[in-house]
Predict the 3D structure of the following.
Amino acid sequence: MRIIAAVAVVLALNVSPVGLRAQAPAKGAPAPPAAAPKVALPSPPPNFQYDAEGRRDPFLDLVNRGSDVVRGANASAKRPDGVPGIETSALVVKGIMQSRGAWLAMVAGADGKVHIVRAGDKLFDGVIRTITAQAVVILQEVNDPLSLQKQREVRKFLRGGEEVK
């Protein structure tokens, strides 16, 4: 019985708050890392607006942009307004509807304006080939001198995304 009482006293001393106190680091041991001070991040001015200053848009795809070379040489030419001024890469399908047995699509360009297009309508770098219930099919002109293909088919889906053939 005394052995059990002695073991209980030893265990009580090891678990007591006195035994749980933080121990000082031994001599020569590295000190624990101190918490880094919080740094206040700068905030932009209240009327801040981003200005690209002639730099390219970092969110545009750089792959398969062969037609940009030709347009870059003629950058001073004014792009037509409306549907003829919309590039295939900037076209976004907002809606597709059927009217009198033909499919129509509501599309938006880089300017954000929504236009209604039909099969056969001309874009800046292509022609709308067909419109289905799920997608708008565009025949895009490729002006890359190294490309063997002069046209490619691009599908812009209603639910987002595109497919190039």
Notes: DSSP finds two helices and seven strands in the chain.
